[in-house]
Design goal:
alpha/beta; Rossmann fold; seven-stranded parallel β-sheet; five-stranded parallel β-sheet; globular; binds (2R)-2,3-dihydroxypropanoic acid
Length: 327
């Protein structure tokens, strides 16, 4: 039998290529520029005829993509924990396994949430930009006043692994933790002392609201104009989940009108584009989707995607399978 082909839509760091070749796979990486996501046509060309795809969270897997990949495709190993970029039902129907990279990026992402929280509360971005532009004239009693963290209430929307890690990090600030979810989460409550609240109540009582939920049809625009209007004028919103969980235009409006104090964002509705006006707002701290971007995390993510591919072709269950492929 000829060697199986693994297509990798963009090079991650780490030893993934050597491991795949040592296991006898052909490895195909598109020639396209590796400093940005593949354009749609280049992506469709890259995946054609592969047995496995190691893909990025920026690749959109819809019917067209599955058709172009063709009948040999057995697994999509998604290089990320979120897999809203993949039509899972279509993968199930076609008997294609889908895997992700959970756990390994929990701490790195929780760190970014806290970085955003602190930077937004204490206006790091504004201060740094002004200083670099020569605006620092010496200490001032009313300069860059922010909001306190100690003893405040942190609302977690998405009480999973990353939400738990974010909540745990609040211990140093003696914060009260509240969360929202349709079902009680006893493990989360036990780990963090959190109290479950309906969404509206969480928004009205939290000083900080942190989003770590997956993007699903139910969570798309979970935070819109109405929800933002329920938040305290001193509140900070942090999003390390997925951009479309927030109605970004409504957020720009709320920040512009100072209806909330600030927002810290790592993810955007139409990446890499930002909603008009967002980049000009001083009370928004903006990062370029770097939740999992540490050397160790990204290298371990590359190990996990390869582990999944090797397991599948070895006749074993891929360790981080997220779907139920038919057959
Ligand atoms: C993920 O893995 O889903 C993250 O958003 C990547 O940083």
């Amino acid at each position: 039998m000829s060697a199986r082909t693994v297509c990798v839509t963009r090079r991650p760091p780490g030893d993934w290529e050597a491991r795949l070749r040592a296991a006898g796979f052909n490895v195909r990486v598109p020639e396209a520029p590796q400093d940005r996501p593949l354009a749609r046509e280049a992506f469709l060309d890259a995946i054609a005829g592969c047995d496995a795809v190691i893909g990025m969270i920026t690749d959109r897997w819809d019917t067209e993509a599955f058709d172009r990949a063709g009948p040999k495709l057995r697994i999509i190993a998604n290089y990320g924990v979120g897999y809203n970029n993949i039509d899972i039902e279509e993968a199930n129907r076609r008997g294609i396994a889908v895997t992700n990279t959970p756990d390994v990026l929990t701490d790195a992402t929780a760190d970014i949430a806290w970085g955003l929280l602190l930077a937004s509360a204490r206006r790091f971005g504004e201060g740094e930009r002004s200083l670099r532009a020569g605006g620092f004239r010496g200490w001032g009693p009313s300069d860059y006043l922010g909001v306190d963290l100690a003893g405040q209430t942190l609302g977690i929307i998405g009480p999973g692994r990353i939400g738990t890690a974010i909540a745990r990090r609040s211990r140093g600030w003696d914060m009260r933790i509240v969360y929202t979810h349709k079902d009680p989460k006893p493990a989360f409550e036990q780990a963090t002392g959190a109290q479950r609240l309906p969404l509206d109540e969480l928004l009205a009582t939290s000083d900080f609201v942190s989003l770590s939920c997956p993007l699903t049809p139910e969570t798309r625009h979970l935070i819109g104009a109405r929800e933002l209007s329920l938040m305290k004028p001193t509140a900070v919103l942090v999003n390390t989940a997925r951009g479309p969980v927030v109605d970004e235009e409504a957020l720009v409006e709320a920040l512009r009108e100072r209806r909330i104090f600030a927002a810290g964002l790592d993810v955007y509705e139409r990446e890499p584009e930002l909603a008009p006006g967002l980049a000009g707002l001083d009370n928004a701290v903006l990062l370029p989707h770097v939740g999992s971007a540490t050397f160790r995390t990204r290298e371990t993510m590359a190990r996990i995607v390869v582990d999944n591919v090797l397991a599948l072709f070895d006749g074993r269950r891929p360790p981080t399978l997220v779907n139920e492929p038919a057959g």
